[in-house]
Amino acid sequence: MPEARGLLLGDAHFIGSRRGIVYIGCSRSASVAYIGQTAGQTGVLGRWAHHLSSSTSSFWRRIEERGGCEPGAIEDLAVFASGLGVEPHWNGVESSHREAVEYLVQVRLQAVCGDLDPFLRIISHVRPNLTCQLPFVRTRAEAIAAEFVAWYEV
Amino acid sequence: MRDDRLVDQEQRLGRFDAFRVLNALGHIGYTPVSAIFDIVDNAVAAKATRVDIDFELEPGVAENRRNNVHRYVIADNGVGMDRNGLDNALQLGSKETSDEESLSKFGMGLKSAALSQGNRLSILSRRAHSQVDKVVLDLDVVRESGSYMLMFGGVNGEDRALWAKYLSDAESGTVVAIDKVHKINHPSGKNTREQLEKEVGVYYYYFIKDDGLEVRLDGVAADALDPLFEEEAEANAQLDPSTWDGRTVGWSQRPTTVTLDPERNIKATVSVTQLPHPPTFGKEAKAIRERYMIGAGHYGFYVYRNKRLISWADRFQGIVPYDIGYYSFRGRLLITDEADEVLNIDVKKSRVLLSDEAYRALDDLAYELRLKSKSAWENAARLRREELGADADQQANEIIDDVDLPETLPTDPDDAKSEEERGQRSKRQEQRTPMKSAEKDDVRQRGQRVHFVDHLDDNVLWERAHDAELGTVVRLNKSHRFVRDVYGYFQNDALVTVVLHSIFYGLAYSEGYAVRAIQNYSDEELEKLFLRFREIASQMFGRFASEAIEKAIEQSGA
Questions:
Q1: Residue-wise pLDDT tens digits, B506-520
Q2: Could you give the CA distance from residue B551 to residue A97 in angstroms, rounded to a whole number?
Q3: Which residues numbered 228-257 in B keep a CB inside 8 Å of some CB on A?
Q4: Which positions ≥6 away from A83 have C-beta within 8 Å?
Q5: pTM higher than 0.80 for the full model?
Q6: pLDDT of residue B51
Q7: Closest chain B C-alpha to A151 CA, distance in angstroms
Q8: How far away is chain B from the Cα of A15, in angstroms, using its nearest Cα?
């Protein structure tokens, strides 16, 4: 398991709050980024515990399929997270709006991933749905992508 | 045990059979059109403003007969070549140009393109303020001499006449002539001319539109033809699949960037438009198909490398599926030669094979766009059917309205008291669950007994309404997953719609019937029972929709 650095503890996004969150886990050493969403009780920390603890998790599978590197090449892991808001459509069991933002963030980052230093290879597998066309969903996704780029480049 | 003793080594120059190598170059898969375009590329690289494409047919042979081409001629008014330039042009792997936007890739195009069509390539060329020079590559000479023998000079009267025909007004230029044209299954001149007429404006769209290049076929200049019809899209609103009527070109994706290789930061610009839906135009459908090139071989991505088309309607191994619902999908991928390795561009510059990474990046972007395209196509088709009065929902309702459902069953008591009770319960049903006036009109005028409503209390899937004179109608809840997913999927299928309408109308009618007929319980108790039944059944139908039916649709490959 990679050494956990750069995690921000004590923030509601990470502790778990049943709030809708889009997160991006990235490794500079391996130049990979993985985008996901959650509204679970255990929040982002819980999701990453699952991603990292199981060798067959989607994260490790994508590392092998798309990352172009061995899991052992992951020497660092930083997780960026952005809360989506308090509105019910972000935070309910039904995940269409969160998945739409997740998809749009990935598409947006695909446009700029080669400009980043170091570059990032986006390895997550996402799919759109009809809510992708809602203006407020697209606006939120653009904002999250911009926030991530600003955070990554600091 | 490994033997580390030195082994005698000998250096020798590798050998090659010039004729066999050149013959092989001529068999890498050019068509006459792709070969001509490769030669036109050289003209563009030579900064030509005018290119003439011409072919001479065998005398006395009909234009539409195979193997009837005598000679291909491509003449341009570019900067031309001197003797050294001609020598370099025929070098296998001719020297790279310093032009960053060169259309050349391997320096083999001229030779392989020419030899793919005929056994003799002749080039006349002149730089400004100099004489016309000539070089000939003749495979028969190469075979006889056993070496890569070229013949320079020897400009004769026939050559001068050829030059004068195309370049009498030019200070410089080049005439490429290919003869000893292959006579086994060689496409007819007519076939090649028709294909060129359709395609040259698309292949050289940017050069013709932006740089003023004139490409003439039989002396007639081709118009620039944008396969995406972006100018028309600009005049219309952004594509909204739920309202698009199929009559206009709309933007599905304005130009945006996708990174094909993040490590080397190689990007492409992607744009997508939605072209018109031909069936919407009725009798004009054929004209629309021709104008916008809508059909099986024309939808997908048009790949432009350094502004020149290299792949026509590429579906990229399923990124755009093979399905009539995507016929209006028209995408463009703009790349530079930096992307050659990522896209595995071949010598002919006509095949593109995406790397795994590039495929995933493009697939992620295109997924939403193809959903939009298909959804828009289906909406236009639905509007067209409604216009024609052939709506699946309407057809299904007409069929159901014709079904004569019994008001009593043989097992029901037929005494006067029971009949009177049925009548009173019917009136109470009318008060309890009345039909709306619009519903009554629909029943009277169109026999519409199954209606879709935006929502129902407690998100139940259906409920009934009753009128003593008109009978029963059923309301289906559009917000319920079963209606969204299952009815939505089969919305164009009148047969499936009849089946689904029958199920729900049957359930609604049977509830009402049971409330009137089961007289050992009060009608209020029975209504409460059926309400509870509908709540439970709605949950079950929702679960079936999400776990069984969606899975079945997915597995069917649709």
A1: 999 999 999 999 999
A2: 22
A3: 256-257
A4: A12, A13, A19, A20, A21
A5: no
A6: 98
A7: 19
A8: 31
